[in-house]
Amino acid sequence: MPRVGIIGSLVWDLIYGRDPLAPPVEEWGGIAYALAGLDASLPPEWEIVPLIKVGRDLSGQAQDLLRGLSRLAPGGRCVEVTAPNNRVVLHYQSTERRCERMAGGVPGWTWAELGPMVRDLDAIYLNFISGFELCLGTAQALRQGFKGPIYADLHSLFLGMQQDGFRVLRPLPDAPSWFGCFDLLQLNEDEMHQLTPDPLVLAAQALEAGVSMLAVTLGPRGVAYVAAPGWRGSGPPRLPAPPLPRSPCAPPSSRRLTPRPSTPLVAEMYSGRLPLPGSWPVTRWRRRSVTRRGSLLATPASAAPPASPVTFGVSW
């Protein structure tokens, strides 16, 4: 059976202001959203292999969460570490803006640890939830040592951390080297502006580094993308919104999981409805709000225009 490895961090969130009229809620966050989205949308023949470290203080709860996945590969589990698990306090300032403070010390992967674990995988989904999952050297070793497709949401690579744990937006050092580690890249508009005010400059840097497609989420305005030569529009079937599983570690009223915007696209690629490199097609994507503030589900809308040497698109 084909297997997709999921690299990211499970985070225990304390959330203020998501619903201004409701009290704060505690729940699993971070890579839990991608796990839920892929578990709901991957075809039956695919298995999920978690490549996730978790602190000893929340290891039992994390294993319970994984056992709720229907596509979990046999024997799949988090790797327990002695450090305390990552915990984040989130204060929503608006639907799109929030303040984040992180505590915990889950270490990233080294290539010596990760290399043997990816040998039998067919694809990798990587989300930089904490920003410390991989250093650049490990990401480069992963690119050299793993020949399947790698989808990366750069996310918290753009967040520095102050001594008090508050996360602050910052430029990504050596961005082209990071780009060269992945086949598909996702970042948001604020993160893009940390690199350059000119989207065409960013697109040129990504394609020159070997990226096949770069997607930039634009908040309520949708998603912009640029694709390398050889990509063609295909118009795959639309994905239904996955169910919202409950956490085994939080009251039912406070636990809702929704997939990150990238997970339906990843599921389409890994299912064969979107071919893998070098014939991945470009598809226009529209965003559809779901019940959780700050969470969005991307669904295929229609085929992109015929491929040109470089394909650009904006969709909503």
Describe the 3D structure:
- Residues 232-260 and 272-308 have low confidence and may be disordered.
- The chain has helices spanning 32-41, 59-67, 111-118, 136-145, 175-179, 189-195, 199-208, 263-271, and strands spanning 3-7, 10-16, 25-30, 47-51, 53-55, 79-81, 87-92, 98-103, 123-127, 150-153, 159-161, 167-169, 184-188, 213-217, 223-227, 283-289, 296-303, 311-315.
- With 316 residues, it is an alpha/beta fold.
- The chain has one domain (3-315): UDP-N-acetylmuramoyl-L-alanine:D-glutamate ligase.
- It is globular, with a radius of gyration of 18 Å.
- The relative contact order is 0.16.
- It has eight helices and 18 strands.
- α1 packs parallel to α8 (263-271).
- The two termini are 34 Å apart.
- The strands form five sheets. An eight-stranded mixed sheet has the order 4-1-9-10-13-14-15-18, with helices on both faces. The protein has a four-stranded mixed sheet with strand order 3-2-7-8. A two-stranded parallel sheet has the order 5-6.
Which terms would index this structure?
316 residues, alpha/beta, UDP-N-acetylmuramoyl-L-alanine:D-glutamate ligase, eight-stranded mixed beta sheet, 22% helix
Give the helix/strand class. Answer: alpha/beta
CATH top level? Alpha Beta
Order of helices and strands: EEEHEEHEEEHEHEEEHEHHEEHEEE
Number of domains: 1
Q: Span between N and C termini? A: 34 Å
Oligomer: single chain
Q: Mean pLDDT across all residues, rounded?
A: 79
Indicate the CATH topology: UDP-N-acetylmuramoyl-L-alanine:D-glutamate ligase
Outline the biggest β-sheet: 8 strands, mixed
Q: Which geometry do the CA atoms define?
A: globular
- How many strands? 18
Low-confidence stretches: 232-260, 272-308
- What name goes with the CATH superfamily? Ribokinase
Task: Bin the helical content.
Answer: 10-25%
Count, helices:
8
